[in-house]
Every structure is written in C-alpha cells, then in structure tokens.
Design goal:
The chain has 346 residues and is of the alpha+beta class. Helices cover 45% and strands 18% of the residues. The protein folds into two domains: 226 residues, Jelly Rolls; 96 residues, Homeodomain-like (Arc Repressor Mutant, subunit A).
C-alpha cells in the first residue's frame, strides 16, 4: 500500500508536508500528496508550496475553490518516478530561481492526459497527450497546461553522466513512438497502474527498468539524428555552478576543488567551463562574496545602529577571514569602503 503523505485538515502545515514529500525515504517507497483533505479555498496555496516549490505560479490559474491535484512519487536512488495530476496551471522557473536553488536534475516526461499544453525550456514546444518531452531544471522553465496528468522520470545529472558518459549532451527533443519511446510510455503507464499493489522491492525493480529505458531513449535520441545543443548543456552546467557558488560563498574554505566535487566533475573541466564564459573560478567565488557583502552592508544601513552587525561580522558571514582583505577588495570592486557604502545607504 502507498505510504501516503496526507494533510491534516485541522492543523495542516504546508511546509511540513512538502518536507515530508522531499525527505529521504527508502527506495521503492510510494509517497502521495493531494488536496482532498485541504479546505477548498486553500488548495491552490497548498499546491504552490508543497508541489510547485521549484516554480512560481502566475495569475491566470483557476481560483483556489476550483483547484484540485494529486502527486505520487516512487523513490529511487538518483532517479524518481513521479505522477502529477492537477487542474490548469501556469508557472515559471526564472534564472534567479535556478541560481538560488542550484537544482540541475532532468525530467523525461510523458503527457498522459491533457487538452492543451505549452512548454518553454529550450525553445517553445506545444505538447499534446502522448508526447514525450524533456525538462532541464538548470534552465528557466515556463509551463501552461489545462487539466492534465503527467508521468515523469526525474534523473540526476550524475545518473545520466554515469550511464552515458560525462560528455553526454542532452538533446532538445526526444524520439516519439514507435520504438523505444512507445515501449517507455507503456512501461511507465503500467507501473503507475500497478504501483499501489506492489511491494517496495518490486517498485524498486520496476523503477530501475524505467530508468534504464529512459537512459536508452536519451542515448538513442542522438543516434536518431536529433542534434544535441552543446551550448545549452554548457549553459546549464554554468548556471548550476553559479548557483552553488552563491550558496556556499559564505564558507571561507569554499574553493574550486569543493565546487568541482559538488558538480561531480574534474577541476580541469570546471576551469574550462568558466574560461568559456570569460571567467575564472576563484574570481567568481570572490565576486559572489563581494556581492553578498554589498547587499548586507547596504541593506543594514537603514537599521538602527544597535541592530546592525559590525563590518567584521559582515566580512565573516560573506567568507572573508581577514577584515583588511575584505576592506581592500570591497573598495577595489565598488570604489568605496564598506563604511562609506553603509553611510551612503542612509
């Protein structure tokens, strides 16, 4: 039976249920979250926080009183199977959101049921029921969908690179039926039909089969003549790298070696990636630290003096272990000292 993550209608906590859905679980666990137990006026807000956390819903979706949705997930290692069904949605994932959360996984999705859908991730694509398509979460995304049911395999980039090689480049589109695409559609649909009656170890076996088929489809997409967009792959990795830099720059020990480890690539590959964008890795880390320091210094300028952190504290928070180095680099970058920047912020 499914391990259901169901909200308490009396004391539901949106963030708590989202955390449960995203928390580590044993492979083969079947998780479910839905809106049935949520008061009708709160359903859309619940869905925004618990399911669309990577996206920002835009006006135009139906009001909360008409909304309903269900998400089921089979947990794997480096790959998850997800079924998402809901009323109409319009949502975006911006460049700023990509940088902020650093997510770089990829979903290979089948639109099982839908009257109309538009998807923009690597160009605009109209999606009909029965269409296979890719979503790269290291890039901005926009989706518009009528009431729909979508079946997806989420793969980490490490999973893809381990199977297909670190130089593998994502295609811009997938081969459709007949062939592997048709087999994958049948396998995924059958998995969701039988999942509630399976034991966790059985779901693990089937998830592995779906994953292997998805990886085979990705590989065949290049053999079939669908040209990969190497620049798009390079940009995706670069965006993911910058997201990690901004997230970890407050740690004085954060450096190129640790960034390469987080990206699961060699330092040489990392240096080449930044060089293709006219940047150095160390310079990017220092730039992120200085930008963070500027934001803190100018933001704190309007606070009461007793509530402001000292400039030394700001330096430490932003990854500078030596205050004099912080002062010198700050002035070189912005033309004013941290103290002068704080004074100008009044």
């Amino acid at each position: 039976m499914a391990h259901e993550v169901s909200p308490d209608p009396e004391t539901h906590s949106h963030r708590r249920h989202h955390a449960a859905l995203a928390s580590p679980q044993a492979p083969g666990t079947l998780l479910e979250v839905g809106t049935d137990a949520i008061p009708s006026r709160e359903r859309l807000d619940f869905w925004r926080e618990s399911v669309l956390s990577r996206m920002r819903p835009l006006p135009g979706a139906p009001g909360g009183t008409a909304f309903g949705g269900r998400l089921r997930r089979i947990v794997g290692e480096g790959a998850d199977l997800v079924e998402h069904a809901s009323e109409a949605v319009h949502a975006v994932r911006t460049e700023a959101m990509c940088r902020r959360d650093g997510a770089d996984d990829v979903s290979l999705s089948l639109m099982a049921e839908c009257q109309w859908a538009m998807h923009e991730n690597h160009g605009t694509q109209q999606i009909a029921a029965g269409t296979l398509y890719l979503v790269d979460y290291a890039r901005p995304v926009e989706v518009r969908r009528s009431r729909h049911r979508d079946l997806s395999i989420f793969l980490t980039r490490k999973k893809i690179h381990d199977a297909l090689g670190p130089g593998f480049v994502l295609p811009t589109e997938l081969p459709q039926a007949p062939g592997l695409g048709s087999v994958l559609q049948t396998l995924v649909a059958a998995t969701w039909r039988e999942a509630p009656r399976m034991a966790p170890d059985e779901r693990t076996v089937v998830l592995q089969a779906c994953t292997d088929m998805a990886l085979a489809l990705l590989q065949s997409s290049q053999k079939a003549g669908l040209e990969p967009d190497s620049r798009r792959f390079d940009d995706s990795l670069y965006r993911a790298a910058w997201g990690l830099v901004r997230r970890h720059c407050g740690d004085p020990a954060f450096n190129a070696e640790r960034l390469a480890a987080l990206l699961e690539c060699s330092r040489a590959s990392l240096y080449r990636l930044f060089a293709r964008h006219g940047e150095g890795v160390a310079a990017a880390i220092w730039t992120a630290r200085l930008d963070a320091a500027w934001q803190q210094v100018t933001r704190d300028a309007v606070a009461h003096p007793a509530q402001r952190p000292s400039l030394s504290e700001v330096a430490q928070r932003c990854g500078f272990s030596d205050p004099s180095t912080f002062q010198r680099m700050f002035k070189r970058r912005f033309g004013v000292t941290p103290r002068e920047a704080r004074m100008q912020g009044h």
